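request received
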Amino acid sequence: MQPRLEEESRLNLSYRPKKYIKKHGIAYLFMLPAIFFLIILFVLPFIEVFKMSFYSVNLLNPEAEAFIFLDNFISALSDPTFYQYLYQGLIWTFGSVIGEYIVGIVTAILLNQNIRGKTFFRAIIFIPWLVPIVVAAMTWRWILNPDFGIFNVMLVKVGILDESINWLGTAGTAMLAVIFVNVWRTFPFYTVTLLAGLQSIPKEIIEAAEIDGAGIWQRFWYIILPSLKGVSAVIIILHVIWTFNNFDFIWLLTEGGPLHATETLAITTYLEAFEKYHFGQASALSSIMILILIGIIITYFKVEKKQNN
Amino acid sequence: MKLKRRYSLLVGFFLTSSLLLSACGSSGPSSSETNESGTNNTKENSVEKQEKVVLDLWWSMSANNEEHKNHYAAIEKFNQEHPNIEVKPQSIPLEQAKDKIITSANAGNPPDVADVLNEWLVSYHRMGILPDLTEDINKWEEKEKIPQNIWDTLSVDGKIVAVPSELGIRAFLYHEDMLKAAGAAEPPKTWDELLELSAKLKGQGVAPFGISGQSARAPQELIVYFWQSGTDIAHQMPDGKYRNLWAENPEELQKAVEVYELYKTMLKDGVINKDSASWGYRELDTNFAQGRVATTVNGPWIKNYEAEQPESMKDVQIAAPPYNTVPATFMEVGSFATFEGSEHKKEAITFMTWWLSEETQKLVNPGRSPNTGVVQDGKWGEGFYKLLDQGRSFPGISMGGIIQPMIDSIQKSLLTEESPEEIALWLGEQINNSLKENGELSESPAK
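response:
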């Protein structure tokens, strides 16, 4: 915005409140219900969680409730398992998001080609995203089952494996397996979003690059990928938040096991709250998770700003 | 002028919406006070409507499940027999029910009746959300038809806090044909006999014995092994509180060590499937029903697989679980509870005791009833019921912080090189930590 316009805008706001209200009042009025629900459903619970994180709250021992300031945070951060679950949470989050992005962009590019039946393919590719999480998780538990799961049977028949692997039940493979299943379920969201982005790239630019001798890889790297930067940033940030906070998918597949190999901070928080009933400690963990996410997002924007400069 | 009209319209819209919403939200009796012609109803009608109590029931029965049809039919029967009470069931899986009950009860809006597991009861009691039902149950004419150890399971600090609705005693289930083929005349009575039998069964290409390594079933199996070995996860001390004694009493520790030695031996010798650490109840039940596991310790619900797997289920027989030094088995008591905060506790108790009555149990639980008047003949009824005297449940402590360490201890014994003694001591420490956090740890010296 030009400085003169900014100044005008400021003046409009400062000196003509009546005119401003007359112009925008209706918009605020329509926003009121949304703001009301936002406050009730998000802001107030968040404040309550933040407040509770400074208290010792154990539902099984209500008499012991007391203000303990930072003790919950100190206790969480001084527990070595916290760093193990944080690390596993980051592996789960970035492994999933990177995998989803790669599969999503490849399928989006394929579906952007002029092939016969592309409408059909665009419709069916969305199916994994539509399957309810519980159904998807239960189905994959059976598919990956070491005794009669089809995944192992196929790999053994093809000769890739000598004997079946307990993908979800072995500490070394469980995280890989849950990330794989999560990528399978979520990549259609990337495909559809990136496909919309791809369709907005003018064909002339790509054709011009082709005439100038740019190969497939160069066209992808120097034209397509930069054009998708905006939409990519949005879906990546959203999915980093969703995946880092995700509880149900890992829980349904492995319950955080075997031996905590797939436990993330989201699962630890659930266990603290609903298995041990330590709501103070669980609130502190939630607050730490929010701070970590804010840190990741600020870092992302800073890096992006630096690159743009 | 246009803007004014718009604001008037908006205000009108909000007012109308509020009125509509408040009309929808109003209770039955007040909305029914006026009849179609706009005049007041008769006094009798009004009183009748106002007295009708709606009981919200959260339970795990699904209306779409063929096995639960009788349960829904029973609800209809109750509603017909009690014109002033209407039970409204809502299907909620047990896995979700525990958290939902805690959240709603602590928010002051619990269901009137809910399906609960006995391992949740102590925690709920400590939270102060379960009312004392002792007085009402003592007045109930069929109380004596329920065995005392079932009432004990549903009592906390000497108070009855739930009413049994069904019974799931665990027994040793085996495929008789497989045992015959292995040359075994009868099922094993002890752990040693189980291991001997397993060596013979291995040649048949099936897992000789089936266990759970995760989910709710795993700690239920583990605690039975402790009982069968003569120890427990927590002992009640003279001060009435509890403590795990393995770290301070070598004799007790040895008994716990023997349990983890059993797990390790079973894995090493191929008695159990190599992937048992990740088996939940679904994997265990399915594998046994399909005949991929020769023997297991399981509940009467396995009968439901007869329809799906008639061939592999037809040779299943039932016996007492093999033990180390003390015969014992797990007694899972499904129960109904009402909650502090419910405005209809009296009606809830009427419903719960009606459900447990001999007449209703014959309809809903002919083979799994806690009511002694309803024992069904045959292996699925009497076969389990005769193990009732051996039946035990979790000790009277909050299990929330203990269940997961118990599962971890099984997985440690199956997936790591840690010694049985290390695992037992680790679990003992976790149990005492949990007891301490919840104010349940005894400071009395061990005898």
